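Database export, one record per block. Field names are fixed; values are copied verbatim from the stored entry.
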Amino acid sequence: MNSSIKSKTVNGFKWGLIDNLANSGVTFLVGLVLANLLMPEEFGILGIITIFINLSITLIDGGLATALIRKKDVSELEYNTVFYANLSVSIILMLFLFLGSNYIAAFFDQPILAPTLSVMCLVLLINTLSLIPKTILIKKLDFKSQAIFSLIASLLSGGVGVVMAYNGCGVWALVGQQLLRQMLMAIGFWCVCRWHPGFLFSIECFKDLFGFGSKLLAANVVNSLFKDAFLAVIGKIYSAKDLGFYNRAEQFNAILSNNMGQIVRKVSLPTLSQIQDEEERLRETFRKLMIYVGIISFAAVFSLFAISEPLVVILIGEKWLPSVGLLRIMCFYAAIYPLNMLNLNLLNVRKRSDYLLKLEIIKKILFLPVIGVGFFFNIEVMLWVAVVYYYVEFFINGWYSYRLIGYGTKAQVKDMGGIYFISLVIALATYLLTLLSLPAYIILILQFLVLGSLFIVTYRVLKQPEYMEIENFCKSKIISK
């Protein structure tokens, strides 16, 4: 990998990690406070709200932000066109959610959904206002500014959320925290980017960008609908309590897998887009990214598998133990989630949004059995079927990567199969420590020590090249400071 690209990529990963930890870390901590104050049923309410907010955000973006990021040169006319298009859609969707909140509450038989969803939909407008400034920062690979403002916004809004929780606001604490955080983020991005909209709009520009973005939008909508259907089945067929356990397990899982996936998505797209016309360089950079991500993702997620029980007991108490089994199953598909994100980003880099749409249609047809299982079996069985689905998805995504740059599933498995196996064996061995009759905090400390030692010793003995590069880079940064 070219040294300049490597430096920008590593720097992007570093600040992307800080950004995402600030993003989800404070939300996670606020969630821990709420988990000690609220019942699982109330977390289920938050899960249902998320279904509609996530789908709306997908529709608002319309694939236009990605279209701007992958373009080498973007004009003011194009920025303004996307800004006003997104703003118009966000206002329309806000009105739909506000007017439909009572019907949604009635469908799920949860009256509290009406007021909370009506207020939470303001996130859509606030998020829209920050889309263009954030897109400009991503194109500049300026993840540092994003991370700083994300940290400030998350700390301030998280503090407000905690105060609200301790004062008995319940589910409204998280609603308030999310709204304030988005508002502070929007203000921060506008200040650092110094971009402001003009009175510019072009139908031709919109058609050009939407030509790429429309297929990406369709793919993202299909993906969001099926993901949300998964949550809806749990919330409707089972209960809000079961969705609460699932949601809590997913929040633990998201700290690692979703953060890593989002970092990979944000950093790899502009990085790979810069060398999209250089076949050999693109393939080698993509391969290196895959292995780096695999090493970090497998180690982190399977470590979470090992420590999940004492971690849950210590942080949120034994009443949440039903979440542990769900979390352990999630870890098996969470491990490859960042790799799927990287494969899909390659399609964006190569301007193949048509492939993305076809992929989403194919994969969601394959996802139907996962939802179907939910109607006849329990959540655990549904999650295990989901594990099978996500690994099939990885093989399908890899096949398209082979068609585009000649680095497909077979080569990816060859490069990362050993890394996956090592991580899983170390995690399973460390998991056995939970069988000891010791306090949870003692077991957790022992597991951290064993995990760290085994990973470092194993990779050093094997002299795994990419791991040694990661370790040497970390050492150089520590020494330079």
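Remark 1: The mean pLDDT is 80.
Remark 2: The chain has one domain: 3-480.
End of record.
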